[in-house]
Amino acid sequence: MTSISILCLWLFTGYIMSNYHVVIIGGGGTGGALAHDLALRGLRVTLVERGEVTSGTTGRHHGLLHSGARYAVKDQESAIECIEENTILRKIAPGTFEENDGLFVAITDEDVEYSHAFIEGCAECGIPTQQLSKQEALRLEPNLTDDLILAVRIPDATMDAMRMPLRFFATAKKNGVDIKTYTEVLAIRKQGEAVTGVQVKDHTSGKVYDIGADLIVNAAGPWSGKVADMVGVEVPIRPSPGVMVAVRGRWCNMVINRLNTSSDGDIVVPQRGLSVIGTSSWVVDDPDNLGLPPDHIQAMYNHGTMMMPVLKNAPMRAAWSAARPLIGPRKADADTGRELSRTFKCFDHVDEGVEGFVTITGGKATTLRGMAEAAANVVCEKLGIEEPCRTREAVLLPHTAYYA
Amino acid sequence: MAERDVVFKVLRYKQGETVPHYDTFTVKTDENTTALVALQAIRRDDDPSLTLRHSCHHGSCGTCGMRINGEEQLSCVVNVQELGTPTVVVEPLQNAPLVSDLVVDMAPFFDRYTQPEMPYVRQSEFMPEADVPDGIGHYTRYENCLECGLCVSACPVMGSDASYLGPAAMAAAWRVVAEPRGSDPEFALNWADNEHGCWRCHVAYECTEVCPSDVNPAEAIMSLRGELTKRKFRRVFGLGK
Ligand SMILES: Cc1cc2nc3c(=O)[nH]c(=O)nc-3n(C[C@H](O)[C@H](O)[C@H](O)COP(=O)(O)OP(=O)(O)OC[C@H]3O[C@@H](n4cnc5c(N)ncnc54)[C@H](O)[C@@H]3O)c2cc1C
Ligand code: SF4
Ligand code: SF4
Questions:
Q1: CATH architecture of structural domain B107-236
Q2: Is B45 within 8 Å of chain A by CB?
Q3: Domains and CATH numbers, chain A
Q4: What angle do CA B162, B163, B168 make, to 5 degrees?
Q5: Which of A184, A256, A319, B22 is in the most buried spot, having the most CB atoms within 10 Å?
């Protein structure tokens, strides 16, 4: 090799591959999207997940690609994040969504009253709406209740809670990210004020070992408070579970939402041959011990039936709980979790005297890419890397590429 | 609520060990406890090193497949008390390399499954009487197949012929023939038309029996054979395709 070509090679690899090593803790949608973003910016990345990827909250969510309409009145910051990411994800993950749109349905006078603020809020957030009469809506969704007064169409869609994020994991893996599943972080190593690596246990072999890191990102969702405890910093996260009930039969093709403020059982998401009713909201301390309150299962049926009477006798396929990573005072008294914002936050714990440790949490599955971009910007700034984010354009590999 | 203690006998294996063994655990269950929730309770309360795959918890992602009392099941939709056995035996899927405990390597499954390039979103056949809103050609939905591998685990031919392409991949190939959506049905047919493809099946229907998502792979294999036979017949008699 000539010295010129060695120089070129050095310049080239120096450009696309920095030597900094980032360890991401948590293989949910957030961790997967962040791994993808950092890999495109040329960083060396290892992601550790204690179970299978998407075995935390991500795989278990309701399966709604939010239009943002649900938050357009009370939480506009979240609503705007949702509609932006909704548009981007359809572009970078084609063939991943059941793109049938959604309806918000008014069945009481109070709902109709709310519809004014709702349509206005959507307009303010850039969410397109189309108002439909009772007859028009019933032609689209014949199983809606006869109590229907009006409906508003918005660009919701059904997402596969596991397969959508798998496309980020597949692409990240292809771009060199080392994804270590069944690998649990037991401790975080520190030298003085700086974190220097993680101690992990590989549960497939029982081996315990250390992985060195220039920077660690805590993307452990509702577990991020527990991970932060390992470093002695505070992440104000409240694990806030909800119950979902999947019934057999696809009783609607569009996503059906109740046109009112957020409440229990206010949405039915069709998916494959199922209809999924959700959700409730309370708060717990331990994200590994959520329980499944039987009265919440009944409540899902009761509220779902108000919008679609056929659900009353639809046989249950499964009922389960999943915990939101909501940002809010960790040990406070909020008892439903509904009052906490659905937006996300990135914390650089240097403010608490710890160098090299960043937390990204909160948010929605819908906003995983945006969360990753925000966290990757912080990571790159800390490491002095000037690479732009490329995830708005890069089309993702199919989900099957993750395993194949 | 009827609480009951149930004994779980779980196959255990870690990389580097020569043979698997079984461990037993006692789990408190109520009438809603699924096998998956019971295994998570074991991992939380008794042994954090227990490995298993899971994601959606409602029979839609296909990751939590295992053998429960000898039968291929998605553990998230198996109600423990309804099994009615005092001991529940839990083992990993067969015909896939064992990674650890209940985790198998799905790479060989996907290597075959992705060959016919089946698009994952299909035209929805539900509620044909419903109108479709402006701007949407037709309502869509996800394919039935959950890529869970239960059929591959249950198939007796898979156990004796490691090169058999297997029921899930055959079902995917048939879906491309039935509804191409931009993929190549000729490729899918030619790929299935081989001694380790659709002609290898014994038509025992074990795959269809265990499928949790009404894919009916055995029927798909019969359809592939029918289509291939029809084409060969036409070729012999010079009738073109
Ligand atoms: C009931 C409910 C319904 C929802 N519905 C929707 C919806 O329809 N649409 C939507 O967009 N969003 C929805 N959400 C929100 C969405 O699911 C979450 O915001 C998102 O999935 C969080 O992803 P995450 O990657 O941050 O966390 P997670 O998916 O929880 O990932 C964190 C990961 O960290 C791992 N981990 C924890 N500790 C360790 C350790 N010590 N070592 C290694 N790994 C560790 C965990 O195993 C886990 O996999 C819903 C949430 C809930 C609760
Ligand atoms: S019908 Fe064929 S593919 Fe299905 S289990 Fe039997 S032999 Fe295997
Ligand atoms: S055909 Fe059925 S059993 Fe086989 S992988 Fe698909 S869903 Fe699972």
A1: Orthogonal Bundle (1.10)
A2: no
A3: 1-63+160-236+328-404 (3.50.50.60), 100-155+237-325 (3.30.9.10)
A4: 95
A5: A256
